[in-house]
Amino acid sequence: MTAKDLNLLSSYDYHLPDELIATTPAEPRDHAKLLIGDTLETDKKFYDILDYLNEGDLLIVNNTKVIPARIYCYRDRILPNGTVDGKVALELLLHRPTKDALTWESFAKPAKRFKPGHIVKFEGHDMTAEVISRNGDTVELKFSAQDTKEFEDFLDFAGEMPLPPYIERKDGATKADEDDYQTVYAEHKGSVAAPTAGLHFTDDLIDKIKAKGVEFDTVMLHVGAGTFQPVKVDDVREHQMHSEYGVMTAQLAEKIKKVKARGNKVIAVGTTSMRVLETANQAEFAGDTNIFIKPGYKFNTVDALITNFHLPKSTLLMLVSAFIGYEQAMKVYGTAIDSEFKFYSYGDACFLVKNDS
């Protein structure tokens, strides 16, 4: 078999039947299926993760909270003589705050309809947003709210859960999605996409994990809308990752060192947790990260990973390939497809142990 060039985007492509894309989650959450990466076992449920965690191990989750970041809006259509002639329908997907909590970079549709100085308006609300700049399909906007509380109240009124584009809803996100697309331990508002591996945990399962003597701790990464953006270059070395804000405490850094010193595993729940942990490198961290983990990367912290199944040609599939090896990653994905596992945000999960070879 000819070796794949892992710098080529095409190496990370695979065919997924549409019926394997999950559009609703398992019920209860911890009854999703679980694939074991090293043995390719497919008969487990997510609650069986208990059997793969040992006393003294450290399980780390991302406690970010998803905000209702998709906003439908408009601006006035201004004629050359200055009169208003109807409305131009627009859509925003908030990505990340820039200068302050009221100034946001956002993906915009249609982006060409946004120009600096334009005032964006919202049906049924007196909030406005001024377009500061536009760069490709993103715009920077300053919202007219007086403070963060007023802005959050506005999002609750005007925004909806930012479901990924592959979860189709005729009328947008539902009331059920407001709960389903949020982890049970979500705490810090700021993400515009869920850390989806964490969606499988219930409070009861977390209690059982702790009762087994497994340590449970948190990092934070505010997941940006860039997670939905496709890689557009043929050579993945040319891809530019979007920055996202993350935090790891000094206390957790010290805990990680002790866990590793005694020979236990550090287990990341999700690729977002992994990206914070690997950025921090066992030290306190608070700031932006655009870490791009792909084959060739040398891991400094994470020993095992709980994650969902990711899109073809995605940076997350590259991360998995770096962690367990490309050939094993392809075996895991092939097995998941053959066994009719559900994929993507509301899909099933896998448990992966780092390949050190």
Which descriptors would you attach to this protein?
alpha/beta, 357 residues, 9-stranded mixed beta sheet, 7-stranded antiparallel beta sheet, QueA-like, Thrombin, subunit H, 2 domains, globular
Explain what you see.
The chain has 7 helices and 18 strands. It is α/β, with parallel strands linked by helices. Strands 2-1-18-17-15-3-13-14-16 form a 9-stranded mixed sheet. A 7-stranded antiparallel sheet has the order 8-9-10-7-6-5-11. Helix 6 (315-324) packs across helix 7. The longest helix has 13 residues, at 326-338. 39% of the residues are buried. The mean pLDDT is 95.
Helix content: 10-25%
**Range of strand content:** 25-35%
Rg computed from alpha carbons, rounded to a whole number of angstroms: 21 Å
Structural class: alpha/beta
| SSE arrangement, N to C | EEEEEEEEEEHEHEHEEHEHEEHHE
